[in-house]
Design brief:
This protein is 57% helix and 11% strand.
């Protein structure tokens, strides 16, 4: 059976020592009173909930799955799931970072992000039920009318109700311009919505008395394509003027998807037959409103793979220390045993350190983005707000794609450490691999994220936002460039930072001649950009660790951090050389291949 220990020490290292989050929050009036003690106390309690309540249900929930009553269209979740959610609500966790105006606790997003990393390590499928509600909350908070906010936000904030996002239809996924769901205006200002949605995570369950669906649909006179999409809030049960629940709405679960992983989350086929909905935002502007939820979900999906990377690594490390197999090539290490533990073998260490580096780099990036979001939403200086928003926009596809690709590498490497036992269900590793696989697909496949990064976020503004991140790298290089102890961390990012400008310009010029060149290079480009971001963050972590050691701190944590950073730069970061070469290979070898694909 697997185990899980919340990585509180590493979270505290990032928040308090690397990003100096308490100091940052002093500049944000809303969070000026949030101190290190408060953050640590909340994270400790969050870790207890994740490890003691959500984690023990992970394997049993995967085995039991969800069950649909096709007569009532009601879904029963696995044993213990509903009760765990009740504890989650009782503890006030859904309200952690929500607006106090609607009953929220108003704590920073960075704390909420750390909570969800631990929950994802503990039980990704369960965590998706409350997790999706945050996206619905954010979309309504940003674009809902005062009436809609008053009607829905208090119950979403408390967790009394949950939310979903209903985008995908059987004939269209990412290309939402093709969707067919219809919204007919009614005399009372509501709309009757008809259509079918698929792959709706947490689309039906027994946790709460109501589920609030955010649905994309078309008005009768809507323009074709993505410019003709509107957003509607469609509750499972209609809500009366006094806030009580009314009659059942015409939206229900027609089936559950049979999946490779996340089996205890109800991935629903949603049918709408004259379902009553209310518009969110302006007509034909639904995609802009939904993007609030979609971007939150993309950051959340990266967080899912981060959580799985961490728990897979922890269990692989424990197994490698205990499993006896052969003798060390450099001589017997465990003289009192018939064989050495497999952790003595170089390739086992390579797999363990790969998972560890991707977990620690991913946590640093997730924390960095969460802090940027706090500054974007709350900093009094408009320039700081805009710079933070621009960086979050640039980093969002990297968080989604780079962290989930790395999660796949890390979970399969951790499974490999177990050898044959990794393929057996009881050890838990094969579930982490299965659960992680969806993260590379939903909320926009990683190929789509790569196109978003290169096409929209970089080339779309002639690299202006990329230059903002480049300035952060340049500042660190200038600060530590003459420090010999930092050379092994600074020189690689300084070199890649310089190469990135030429690399980006080259692809941009080729793309102007032939847009397929952007598509051909984008996936490789995103991984190069991801390594530049990770390299910058690992250099900052190394900087803090070296200073702590120089000051006389004997905590082995800092030595371990330096060893992980050295491994990352020696064994993982050099992938960028190959990636830039394959990106430059161009589109011809992909597109002029009709004979090969006939």
């Amino acid at each position: 059976m697997p185990s899980y220990n919340p990585p509180l020490r590493d979270m505290q290292f990032l928040m308090h020592e690397v990003f100096k989050i308490e100091e940052e929050y002093k500049a944000l009036p809303k969070h000026a009173e949030v101190d290190a003690d408060t953050i640590n106390a909340v994270l400790e309690e969050a870790g207890k909930f994740a490890a003691n309540v959500a984690f023990p249900l992970n394997i049993s929930g995967d085995e039991e799955g969800c069950h649909l009553d096709k007569t009532t269209h009601e879904v029963t979740t696995p044993k213990g799931y509903k009760e765990a959610y009740a504890q989650f609500v009782e503890g006030g966790w859904p309200a952690l970072s929500c607006d106090p105006a609607y009953g929220g606790q108003g704590l920073p997003f960075a704390i909420n992000s750390a909570l969800y990393e631990m929950l994802n390590s503990a039980n990704q499928a369960w965590t998706m039920y409350p997790g999706l509600s945050h996206g619905a909350y954010e979309a309504l908070h940003a674009h809902g009318s005062d009436g809609l906010k008053t009607k829905y936000l208090p119950k979403l904030t408390s967790g009394e109700w949950t939310g979903t996002m209903c985008l995908t239809e059987p004939h269209c996924g990412t290309d939402l311009g093709l969707l067919r769901s219809k919204a007919e205006p009614q005399a009372d200002g509501t709309y009757k919505i008809t259509g079918n949605k698929i792959f709706i995570s947490a689309g039906e369950h027994d946790f709460t008395s109501n589920i609030i669906h955010l649905v994309l649909a078309r008005l009768p006179d809507a323009p074709v394509g993505s410019k003709g999409i509107s957003l509607f809030v469609v509750p499972k049960y209609k809500v009366n003027a006094d806030g009580s629940l009314g009659e059942r709405n015409g939206i229900y679960c027609g089936g559950l998807e049979h999946k490779m992983g996340i089996k205890s989350n109800a991935t629903a086929q949603i049918v709408m037959e004259d379902a009553v909905g209310e518009m969110v935002g302006q007509p034909n502007k639904g995609l802009q409103a939904m993007f609030v939820m979609m971007n939150a979900a993309r950051l959340g999906v990266g967080n899912q793979s981060l959580g799985l990377t961490e728990v897979a690594y922890q269990n692989a490390l424990a197994y490698a220390k205990d499993r006896l197999q052969m003798r060390s090539l450099s001589g017997v290490k465990a003289k009192d045993k018939p064989a050495d533990p497999i952790i003595v073998h170089p390739d086992v260490r390579r797999m363990l350190l790969t998972a560890k580096a991707y977990a620690e780099g991913g946590r640093a990036l997730s924390t960095f983005c969460a802090l940027l979001i706090d500054k974007e939403l709350n900093h009094p200086d408009e320039k700081v707000q805009k710079d933070s928003a621009d960086l979050v926009a640039l980093l969002t596809p990297i968080v989604k794609a780079f962290l989930t690709d790395n999660g796949w590498i890390a979970t399969t490497a951790s499974q490999q450490v177990f050898g044959g036992h990794g393929f057996i269900k009881e050890w838990g590793m094969e579930q982490y691999v299965r659960d992680n696989r969806i993260n590379m697909i939903y909320e926009g496949t990683n190929g789509v994220q790569a196109l978003d990064l290169l096409g929209r976020k970089v080339l779309g503004n002639q690299g202006a936002t990329l230059k903002k991140f480049g300035k952060l790298v340049a500042q660190l290089v200038e600060e530590e460039g003459v420090n010999e102890k930092m050379a092994e961390f600074i020189n690689p990012i300084a070199m890649l930072g310089d190469q990135m400008t030429k690399f980006t310009t080259e692809i941009g010029f080729k793309g102007m001649q032939n847009p397929d060149e952007v598509g051909a290079a984008s996936v490789d480009y995103l991984r190069v950009a991801g390594h530049l971001v990770f390299g910058y963050l690992f250099a900052r972590m190394a900087q803090v660790s070296l200073r702590a050691i120089a000051a006389g701190n004997t905590d082995p944590f800092y030595v371990g951090k330096l060893q992980t950073a050295r491994f990352y730069f020696a064994k993982l970061f050099p992938e960028t050389v190959t990636l830039m070469r394959t990106a430059r290979a161009g589109s011809k070898v992909l597109m002029d291949t009709d004979a090969a694909l006939s």
